[in-house]
Amino acid sequence: MAITINGSGITSSEIADGSITAADLDVGQLGGRRNMKIKGAMQVAQRGADSKTVGAAGSPAAVYVGPDRFLMYNTITTADQMSATSSYETDAPEGFNNSFKYLLTVNPTGDNYTDSYGDIRQYIEAQNLQHLKFGTAGAKSLTFSFWVKSNTTGKFAAWLYQPNATRDITKSYTINSANTWEYKTITFDGDVSGVINNNTNVGLFVGLNAWAGTNYIRSTDSDWDTIGGTRYNTSSTLLETSNGYLQTTGWQLEVGSVATPFEHRSYGEELALCQRYYQRWDNDASTTTNAAIGVTGMTASSNVYFGLVYKQEMRAKPSFTSSGSFRVWNATQGARTMTPDEFFNPTRHGGRIRFSGGATNGEAALLALEQAGTYFDLDAEL
Amino acid sequence: MENMNIASAQYVAEDGVNGGITAVIDGITMSVPLDPANRHYAEILRQVEAGTLTIQEAS
After folding, report:
1. What is the pLDDT of residue A250?
2. A214-264: per-residue pLDDT in tens?
3. Torsional sign, CA A85, A86, A87, A92
4. By Cβ atoms counted within 10 A, which residue in A156, A241, A270, A307 is the most buried?
């Protein structure tokens, strides 16, 4: 049987000429990269599996959590009136190995019961969204698919927000069975009014709401509009549930109205994509000590300088933090323990780490991560 | 955007030119570049604009 595929459609001796056209295959992009999310399967966790907690006085309202690129976001009207923990889990539906869990450990009370909310989010860089043509009549629809489970059932909200135009849209989905992985798909219309700027800043928030205070709840889905207070179409009772949780993985956001099978990418690909936003330099989570990471130079001002070339070009000039001690070896001073005290004037490609004290002008030295848990982080997250 | 808790912020200078900020954000000491696209620096600027934070001069 001869089959011909051309601009007029697909023909064969057994299929009427022109009976199948490209328009019939309405599944968006068929090949290549369909998923606009980075690391939707959550297999990369440079920060490790440590859980993070928010809600106490002085704690951050939003934190990037175990799985790279995912953010636990809470508005906390009054500190110590709620507490939530994020964790990186190995519990996952078939075909996945990891998931993210949002656990409400202290149920919201007082102002937080009415004026706060908790989300799981990922932010997408604006320049990667230009093909959506938002702000034009040709704005493309988006389909968001994901796996989710919770110990509460009922109506939950998914949410998109584009900060350039301060416009959002919410749609609900239903969790039918408690403590059971369920696959959900939601299609959002394209936004014909709000332009996403072409830059390296946030172009789109994609979020699953875990719970919302009464002042943030609406009872129907919305269309794209200027963001308002009642942004979540949800009746989630998670905020009244003891140890209520929302757990998720397998996030995929793609052009079109059809959710295609999850696009699995290799660990190496996902890691490289994540490192545009965040890089951890450590001992590969091993017990190795004094793992060398490079050669440094010394100056007359008694400083040891390490010129760092990043693993990937980063989205923005990164912030620098470190933990643990470093080992420096040079001819005159021998082996010493030092800690970095400055990361000066970095670019998106590299920077200069300074260790103060005990240098000999002109000498080179070997720099190592002294302890098994020593690391430094570069943060250019959105 | 993220309501960071910024306890302190001080410029770091070399040869009289500011090249970054040492800040304590959410309880963590970090070096923050002078890049408006960096989320920490953007939040520092926002809090300075709001009058809730002052960046100390370099020592």
Report:
1. 96
2. 899 999 999 999 998 888 999 999 989 999 999 999 999 999 999 999 998
3. positive
4. A156
Q: Structure tokens of A224? A: 């794209």
With H, G, I as helix, E, B as strand and everything else as coil, classify residue A113: helix
- Which chain A residues are within 8 Å of B34, Cβ to Cβ? 317, 345
Distance from C-alpha of A130 to C-alpha of B21, rounded to nearest angstrom = 33
Angstrom distances, CA of residue A89 to CA of A41, A93, A183, A299:
12, 11, 18, 46
**Residue of chain B nearest A345, judged by CA positions:** B19
- pLDDT, tens digit, for every residue of A19-39? 666 555 555 555 667 787 676
The CATH number given to A31-274 is 2.60.120.260
* Contact criterion met (CB below 8 Å) for A213 and A181: no
Domain ranges of chain A: 1-29, 31-274, 278-379
- A68-105 burial by CB neighbour count: b if 16+ within 10 A, else e? bbbbbbbbbbebebbbbbbbbbeebbeebebbbbbbbe
Nearest CA in chain B to A53: B26
Sign of dihedral through CA atoms A213, A214, A220, A224? negative
Residues of chain B neighbouring A355 (CB-CB closer than 8 A): none
- Tell me how far apart the alpha carbons of residues A227 and A79 are, in angstroms, rounded to a whole number: 25
* Whole-number pLDDT of residue A20: 62
Instruction: Kindly report the average pLDDT of chain A as a whole number.
Output: 88
Give the model's pLDDT for residue B1: 47
Query: How many other C-beta atoms lie within 10 A of the C-beta of residue A287?
Result: 8
Q: Which of B3, B12, B32 sits opposite A319 (nearest CB)?
A: B32
| Cα–Cα distance, A218 to A265 (Å, whole number) | 37
